[in-house]
Design a protein that fits this description.
The longest helix has 15 residues. This protein is α+β, with helices and mostly antiparallel strands and 165 residues long.
């Protein structure tokens, strides 16, 4: 795009290529109640996610992001499952909201919740949206660093190096 800008009062001419578009960042105070609502649920033992900057992204810029929120509930205890099996999308003990794609209106139509506790489902999915939606990436990067696997329990937060491709 041709610019008619100035920088410190000095005219800038030429084509300026826009940089990465990031979601507006929110302060940590806005994340606290969303996370606390999940921590206060006595049936949730722990939850976590992975955050990293990809080493290679098929020619696109490699940008820090947060991936794969997972939740371990009491119903998952004792099972031989890892965090990939417990990712919120499709989590087997949180329930689900089935839906269908309406080709005519080009919209996704959500069905009725199916599962043991709709309020828990809503709280966990709100946390998923906050953690993975991009609005808290600066806060999470500052708090836990890059290339990290995060596990949150009521007693503390464990940060481990995350190995990825």
């Amino acid at each position: 795009m041709t610019s008619s800008r100035n920088f410190l009062g000095i005219p800038v001419r030429g084509d300026i290529t826009a940089g990465a578009t990031r979601v507006d960042q929110k302060p940590i105070e806005e994340l606290r109640p969303i996370m606390q609502a999940v921590l206060d649920d006595p049936t949730i033992i722990e939850f976590g996610w992975r955050q990293y900057t990809p080493y290679f992204n098929d020619g696109d810029p490699c940008e820090f992001s947060v991936y794969g929120l997972w939740v371990r509930t009491e119903a998952d205890q004792g099972d031989d499952v890892d965090e990939y099996d417990l990712e919120v999308v499709g989590h087997r003990t949180l329930g689900r909201v089935p839906g269908t794609w309406n080709e005519e209106t080009r919209t996704y139509e959500r069905g009725t919740y199916e599962g043991p506790d709709e309020a828990r489902y809503v709280r966990v999915h709100a946390l998923g949206g906050a953690i993975q939606g991009g609005a808290f990436e600066d806060v999470l990067l500052d708090a836990f660093g890059d290339h990290a696997s995060i596990t949150v329990r009521r007693t503390g937060i464990q940060v481990d190096f995350y190995e990825h491709d």
